[in-house]
């Protein structure tokens, strides 16, 4: 036990610094873009086809693309997606993804967006149809109905599951170690390989993840409490 505390004193600061420099930015950036992908995908999937044939045809194509996107990223493992983008695409002469950071952000964002889009879609559909009809009867356009009536309520409803997605993403960033990003799990592997304290190092890195997920969970609690003020 004394040896474990000595390792903790020696390596925990380094692990925390690495988390702040790499793991947290990777999580934040990926979640930001993931929400953008999720919102656009959900809006396409819930949109009603317009009467104009050309507009309806274009929207139908976007709906098909959105459905295929969600299907692919929900049907394949995150680890496989990372390998396809980081190792596969550069081999297909797509040099843009030779950067581990670009590949990781791309995969984590798209993966998060696919799952979060289902959350947002369900939240939008949970708003009673009668409220939309009432807003339209007041002369609002379809866009105004979504912006002023539907989306504010959907945002409140989606806070808990989206917060869970953020916490899950933080833990999933440990997979970035397989494409050479030096986040906290990768660092713990390097240290364990050098000092042969494998169990102790993995317990320490688990403690670091637990610390940050606990902080996010506390933030989630207060955010839910704040948004619940607007519930009817």
TrEMBL record:
Keywords: Amino-acid transport, Cell membrane, Membrane, Transmembrane, Transmembrane helix, Transport. It is found in: Cell membrane. Gene3D superfamilies: MetI-like. The keyword Transmembrane helix applies. The chain crosses the membrane at residues 22-44, 64-89, 95-116, 199-219. The keyword Lipoprotein does not apply. InterPro entries: AA_ABC_transptr_permease_3TM, ArtM/GltK/GlnP/TcyL/YhdX-like, MetI-like, MetI-like_sf. Residues 20-217 form the ABC transmembrane type-1 domain. It is a multi-pass membrane protein. PROSITE patterns: ABC_TM1. Pfam families: BPD_transp_1 (PF00528). Belongs to the binding-protein-dependent transport system permease family. This is Amino acid ABC transporter permease.
């Amino acid at each position: 036990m004394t040896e474990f505390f000595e390792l903790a004193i020696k390596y925990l600061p380094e692990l925390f610094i690495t988390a702040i420099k790499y793991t947290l930015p990777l999580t934040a950036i990926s979640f930001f873009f993931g929400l953008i992908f999720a919102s656009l995908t959900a809006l396409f999937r819930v949109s009603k086809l317009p009467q104009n044939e050309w507009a309806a045809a274009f929207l139908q194509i976007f709906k098909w693309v959105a459905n295929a996107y969600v299907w692919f990223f929900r049907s394949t493992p995150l680890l496989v997606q990372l390998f396809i983008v980081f190792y596969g695409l550069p081999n297909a002469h797509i040099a843009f993804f030779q950067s581990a950071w670009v590949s990781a952000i791309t995969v984590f964002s798209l993966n998060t967006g696919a799952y979060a889009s289902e959350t947002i879609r369900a939240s939008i559909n949970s708003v009673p149809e009668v409220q939309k009809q009432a807003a339209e009867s007041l002369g609002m356009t379809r866009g105004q109905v979504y912006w002023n009536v539907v989306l504010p309520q959907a945002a409140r409803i989606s806070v808990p599951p989206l917060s869970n997605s953020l916490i899950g993403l933080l833990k999933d960033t440990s997979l970035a170690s397989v494409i050479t990003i030096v986040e906290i799990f990768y660092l713990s592997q390097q240290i364990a390989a050098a000092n042969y304290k494998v169990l102790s190092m993995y317990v320490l890195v688990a403690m670091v993840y637990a610390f940050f997920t606990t902080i996010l969970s506390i933030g989630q609690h207060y955010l839910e409490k704040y948004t619940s003020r607007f519930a009817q």
